[in-house]
From TrEMBL:
It is an enzyme of class 5 (isomerase). It comes from Anaerovorax odorimutans. Initiates the restart of stalled replication forks, which reloads the replicative helicase on sites other than the origin of replication. Recognizes and binds to abandoned replication forks and remodels them to uncover a helicase loading site. Promotes assembly of the primosome at these replication forks. This is Replication restart protein PriA. The keyword Transmembrane helix does not apply.
Amino acid sequence: MKYINVAIDNKSEHTDTLYTYGCEDDQVQVGQKVYVPFGLGDKVREAYVFQVLEEPEQEYKKLKFAEKIDEEVSLTEEIIDTCMWMKRRYLCKYIDAVKCFTPAGSRSKRGKERNPYKDAEGEAQNILSLTAEQERVLAPIRQAISEGRHRRFLLHGVTGSGKTEVYMRAVAKCLEEGRQAVMLVPEISLTKQIIERFIGRFGSDSIAVLHSRLSLGERYDEWSRIRSGQVKIVIGARSAVFAPLSQIGLVVLDEEHETTYKSDMTPKYDAVEVALKRLQHHDGVLLLGSATPGVATYFRSCQGIYERLELTSRYNQVALPQVSVVDMRDEMKAGNRSIISRQLYEAMETALEKKQQIILFLNRRGYSTFISCRECGKVLKCPDCGISLTYHKDKNRAVCHYCGYEEKPPEICPDCGSRYIRYFGTGTEKVEETVRGFFEKASVERLDLDTTKRKGSIERILNSFKKGKIDILIGTQLVAKGLDFKNVGLVGIISADVTLNIPDFRSPERTFQMITQAAGRAGRGDETGTVIIQSYTPENYAVQLAAEQDYKGFYETEIQLRQYMGYPPYSDLIQLVFASKTEEKAKGAAENWYEKILSALGGEEKECVFRPQAAPMSKIKEQYRYCMLIKCPQGKRRAYSEILETLKEAEKIKKKDYTVNVDINPYSFI
DNA sequence: AGCACGCCGACT
DNA sequence: GTCGGCGTGCTC
């Protein structure tokens, strides 16, 4: 006879505690799935064992007994421990954390294993010998793996420097040591090449692929293949970090800077943090790779939290493209009001004559509108937060989405007095129309989320581009992600300003990454490519240093700014979103929390908590939303989490008419 | 969140 | 007398 503390699979926040049951089976273990009677009606519910006790912690008037143990879905102690950590870190429910680790589907009826990637041919491998640089970088990784010590590496390698080969060698070393490896990629649908290379090298029997397009049954099969121990390598998007492996020796995160590693659904976890947590248990190695590491990541590598390794030369010595920045203010002065500058137009003509392909980058349609002067490039920014102000048409005000500062938008530019004040954010969709008008004979195709909603059309468009059937491809970030095109002579970035002025402290970082990635698409064949960046603020450091391909210079500038403004990595930003049926209730809840947080802080660090404000799109699905931002100083994360946890706990007791959603270091601020 | 219990009004 | 309305409070 044992006593077990279980987390019950129930939607409610009110039942998000561990319940004690008796258990007849002495063999019961932490992590096992059990069925328990719950509530007045003793309805049978699924639950997971978090603790096994010899004696109950207290006397229970009516102790109930667990019914049976499900042997097929049981987790390990390590996983349960990670769930406890996730609950605290992301303020989610026990069961939300557990569900990350369990397969949503059920066992396939026929018991026959489906193979979701059997059509993926393993790419024939002629194993190339490593360059001296690759050898140098691999040595410490191999050593860490063979010593079985928890270490963390950041591999900073320019595009085309052979990072994937380094990953594969590290994975091979890990398998040699009898352990398993996880390979995370930002977006599985665009990374077919990586999967094929891995299957070619390691064979498909020992590889499992996890991604969102798998059916529930397929996912379940992959999950049980992994748990049974026959899988040695798991490749997948961020959720693959939850793979039920028992001896993780290595987790690789390719394109570490990508925002897709942060979940936007509950629990709002960060795959890097989860990987670190798990690897500490397993004494495994973390390997982050990127050509443009996130500023926070690079900062940590300077602090020694990550050991930095560098690959500086491109694999087959292809020269980096020639990058130039076009000042759109000059175009304006010269009377060219089109979205395409004269220089870009000429470069396009030249490329078409030479039968080279062209990619034009169009940043995600700005959902927020920033205000700028077309004559001098001045952009309206918050005096306190340094981020771009967003124009709110309904009240005709320019508003800061971080702190709520607002002002009346100027009619003439405060810097140069020009009346050409422009409200940016829309209009970029017109690029396709303009380009078709300019180059009637060329074949033009657009690739973005609108055109690729239909399944398979991404691949269709990319394939016809590869075959040379498209002359000009107009696309969003989608095109930039690690795709290899041979005949691209010219890459044009229509407006670097759109990314630069997203109201987010990371917008310079994103701009730098976007330009660098885009530039990497040009001239990967034998000829040097050309990159043209259009901007109204060409003197901006992110644009300038990206054009010069100077990562370190950018980092030095950016990290100083972050320190000065107190942004990550010098703080953690916590976003709270309050939703309710009426505006008053949402506002009331937000203001109530604001006061309570301030008093919990004991009057200190008042400047860290911003006043709540109505969310820009304040009404979604019949719910009114208010949001509030907290800038949690470095080293105070635990204290702030505890305040929020206590508040959440206290609110749980009373009947609430609102919901709170917590996001730690969100990737977008609403 | 569910779900049972309970304490009032309209009904065979 | 009883069927059922939803308000209230608890779940090991």
